[in-house]
Design a protein that fits this description.
InterPro entries: Topo_IA (IPR000380), Topo_IA_2 (IPR003601), Topo_IA_AS (IPR023406), Topo_IA_cen (IPR013497), Topo_IA_cen_sub1 (IPR013824), Topo_IA_cen_sub2 (IPR013825), Topo_IA_cen_sub3 (IPR013826), Topo_IA_core_domain (IPR023405). This is DNA topoisomerase 3. GO terms for molecular function: DNA binding; DNA topoisomerase type I (single strand cut, ATP-independent) activity; magnesium ion binding. A hairpin with a 6-residue loop joins strand 23 and strand 24. This protein has 22 helices and 26 strands. The strands form 6 sheets. It has a 7-stranded mixed sheet with strand order 2-3-4-1-7-8-9. Strands 10-11-14-13-12-16 form a 6-stranded antiparallel barrel. A 4-stranded antiparallel sheet has the order 19-20-21-22, with no helix packed on it. It is α+β, with helices and mostly antiparallel strands and about 725 residues long. It folds into 5 domains: about 140 residues, 3-Layer(aba) Sandwich (Rossmann fold), CATH 3.40.50; about 160 residues, Orthogonal Bundle (Topoisomerase I, domain 2), CATH 1.10.460; about 130 residues, Topoisomerase I, domain 3 (Distorted Sandwich), CATH 2.70.20.10; about 120 residues, Topoisomerase I, domain 4, CATH 1.10.290.10; about 110 residues, no CATH class. The protein starts with a strand and ends in a 5-residue tail after the last helix.
Length: about 725
């Protein structure tokens, strides 16, 4: 009897698997036991070959060589991780290895990581699949007791491979076409471009917006406030000042009569559990975390702390088999601030309904919920604590009773005009207890005019006091934040007026997937198509111009969402992957033709007077995530340097974060309030206040933040854009 080889995606996960499987013998790139050998990838070890692999003519970028449409896509070993690939290939080819268990992440991309390695190494022996939703010892043991044949996941692999090939065909062809045509570092992609198009379109709407004046009318009646409502269309505001003034004059000094009192008992059901996109939205609203930041924190909570289930999920439901584990999960989180809340749920019995438990609404993974692992809150850093807090509170809320209240609506007639007031009496706080009364984050209901109303009967009359009209102005559409951009990517139909197009979009899975949306947004920042000002996202001139240059097809959220839907159908075995990839080749040909035929122009409007030290071209100034940067416009040069860095040091006068400018001895802190301080003076001042090691640690972190040239330049050098 030979060995079973286990292939994990990361070393940390491999160590967890090895511990459960009693493998204790550490070797170079793997861990051995009596029956199992556990090894790991480092993310992807194998990837699609660059265009250069398909012929010398692709080593230089020329319009006439496009589109690039290889008959068969080649796989290559990634140079940076070639050593680990060699280890894995050696293990796969060992004569005493009888079978392989794929234990990479249980999702589309995790499947691709493993299958490409297997294909490149030429492994032909039996393969099984470990499919788990949490990294606890218990989940790992249960997963190994229920290993599945890898064939059951073939369609998931075909979907993942189709996604990768589509992004290569669309992204690399259109990127080369744009870059050659306009002699600028321009890139486009299957998901990135329509996402950018939505941001540019929103900015255009804001630019064209002209505010309009409107008026609302209110008065006091019997000690509470009543609001005017147009009896013709139920609107609560008018755009006609004369009409508003006329109504105020008409009701001044008049008696009002209650014409209807309606009391309704209402229930507000708990929110659904988190999927990744909903969690990223709430984390952005409450903590200003980027989508990528939230995903990274989730990965730590999932892999290192083992406190939450698989993060890259698109489901907000659980399956029947999870229900027996709910009490154990509740007990594991009954610590610190959650103990009392959990006791309340256990006392009233967890509310487990079809609204939370629905097998039909879970595909690869169920909603994000806590694991049965005991939690030590002090082992979490502040970021992990914040995200864990959101997940735990949502989990408790989902299992709590509904929020129940009695709503009273009073309608009045005042001199022939309709007025109304609403009041709410809470009967049972239910799930809102978890949030101290607030169920959703930063979502104010404009129509929520609830107030405390006296016990009042139909036919009651009283004099109107202090009627007045209040002037307001219509507001432009709000700029996207990462939270609202994630919503727009998930449901692009909500942002389209055309009814037929809206319906088509709502039937698709949106732009990208929960697992890829964070990277798409991050890529738009890194390529300087968008920038942040506070929480708001603005398109740059480069981003706005790019949208005017790319073919119309590639800007369409409808088309891109339909492509994503096709990938989902491939994963379910309902669409042939070859048909999809061939369609992508046709689109690549069409898109490249559209770029070549265009008569548009591209102009850099951020040129500095400083020349690139490597190629002599004038550098461009861009706003990076950590501050201002100067970058070379020449694609083949790729030079970039940091000019200012937003530090974590606070201004001693206004307490805002300061910028670091200058080089060497001239490095200084600058604040927007006008405060300046040389770096040496800052070190001296800080050295007097805190431990010198803390100052040194701070400076090391700043240098790390500044020195992003090589990593970012390398990442962007190949221009692989989704």
């Amino acid at each position: 009897m030979g060995f079973t080889l286990i292939l994990a995606e990361k070393p940390s996960v491999a160590r967890d698997l090895a511990k459960v499987l009693n493998c204790g013998q550490n070797a170079n790139g793997y861990i051995m036991g009596k029956k199992y050998i556990v090894t790991w990838a480092l993310g992807h070890l194998v990837t699609l070959a660059d265009p250069e692999a398909y012929g010398n003519k692709y080593k230089t970028w020329n319009l006439e060589d496009l589109p690039m449409l290889p008959n068969k896509m080649e796989l290559v070993v990634i140079k940076q991780t070639a050593k680990q690939y060699g280890v894995v290939r050696g293990l796969l080819n060992r004569a005493d290895v009888d079978e392989l268990v794929i234990a990479t992440d249980s999702g589309r991309e995790g499947e691709l990581v493993a299958r490409w390695i297997i294909m490149k190494a030429g492994f032909k022996k039996p393969i099984k699949r470990l499919w788990i939703s949490s990294q606890t010892d218990k989940a790992i043991k249960e997963g190994f007791a229920k290993l599945r044949p890898s064939k059951e996941y073939d369609n998931l692999y075909y979907s993942a491979q189709s996604r990768a090939e589509a992004d290569w065909l669309i992204g690399l062809n259109v990127t080369r076409a744009l870059t050659c045509k306009y002699n600028a570092q321009l890139s486009a992609g299957r998901v990135q471009t329509p996402t950018l198009a939505m941001i540019v379109e929103r900015e255009e709407e804001i630019r064209k917006f002209r505010p309009k004046d409107y008026w609302t009318i209110s008065a006091q009646f019997n000690g509470f406030t009543v609001q005017w409502q147009d009896s013709r269309n139920n609107q609560t505001r008018t755009f006609n000042k004369e009409e508003a003034d006329g109504i105020v004059a008409k009701i001044t000094g008049q008696m009002g009569e209650v014409v209807e009192v309606k009391k309704e008992t209402k229930k507000e059901l708990p929110p659904l559990a988190y999927d990744l996109t909903e969690l990223q939205r709430d984390a952005n609203k409450k903590f200003s975390y980027s989508a990528k930041q939230t995903l990274n924190i989730m990965q730590r909570l999932y892999e290192s702390h083992k406190l939450v289930t698989y993060p890259r999920t698109d489901s907000r439901y659980i399956t029947d088999d999870i229900v027996p584990t709910l009490n154990e999960r509740l007990k594991s989180i009954a610590v610190g601030p959650y103990a009392k809340l959990v006791q309340g749920v256990m006392r009233n019995k967890p509310s487990v309904t079809k609204r939370f438990v629905d097998n039909s609404k879970v595909t690869d993974h169920h909603a994000i919920i806590p694991t049965e692992q005991f939690v030590d809150l002090f082992s979490l850093n502040s970021e992990e604590r914040n995200i864990y807090d959101l997940i735990v509170k949502r989990f408790i809320a989902v299992l709590s009773k509904p929020f129940e209240y009695e709503q009273t609506t009073v309608k009045l007639d005042i001199a022939g005009e309709s007025f109304y007031a609403k009041g709410k009496i809470v009967k049972s706080s239910g799930w809102k207890t978890v949030y101290d009364g607030f169920g959703k984050l930063d979502e104010d209901d404009e129509d929520d005019n609830d107030q405390s109303l006296p016990d009042i009967q139909k036919g009651h009359k009283a004099k109107v006091v202090g009627p007045k009209s209040i002037n307001g102005k219509t507001k432009p559409p709000a700029r996207y934040t990462e939270a609202t951009l994630l919503s727009a990517m998930e449901h692009p139909g909500k942002f389209v007026d055309n009814k037929a197009l809206k319906e088509a979009l709502e039937s698709t899975s949106g732009l990208g997937t929960p697992a890829t949306r964070a990277d798409i947004i991050e890529k738009l920042f890194n390529t300087f198509y968008i920038e942040r000002k506070g929480k708001e996202i603005y398109p740059t001139s480069k981003g706005t111009q790019l949208i005017s240059l790319v073919p119309t097809d590639l800007k369409s959220p409808e088309l891109t969402a339909k492509w994503e839907q096709q990938l989902t159908l491939i994963s379910k075995g309902k669409v042939n992957s070859n048909v999809f990839v061939n369609d992508m080749k046709k689109y690549a040909r069409k898109l490249v033709g559209a770029v070549i035929a265009s008569s548009e122009q591209f102009k850099h409007d951020n040129v500095t007077r400083e020349k690139c030290p490597e190629c002599g071209k004038y550098l461009l100034e861009v706003n990076g995530k950590k501050g201002k940067m100067h970058i070379c416009p020449d694609r083949e040069c790729g030079y970039r340097k940091s000019v200012t860095v937003i530090s974590n040091a606070r201004c001693p006068e206004c307490h805002k974060k300061m910028e670091i400018r200058g080089e060497g001895e001239n490095k200084s802190f600058y604040c927007s309030c006008g405060y300046r301080e040389k770096l040496d003076a800052f070190k001296k001042r800080k050295g007097q206040q805190v431990d010198k090691r803390e100052v040194a640690k701070f400076m090391r972190q700043q240098e790390k933040d500044e020195n992003i040239n090589s990593a970012l330049a390398d990442a962007l050098a190949k221009w692989k854009n989704n």
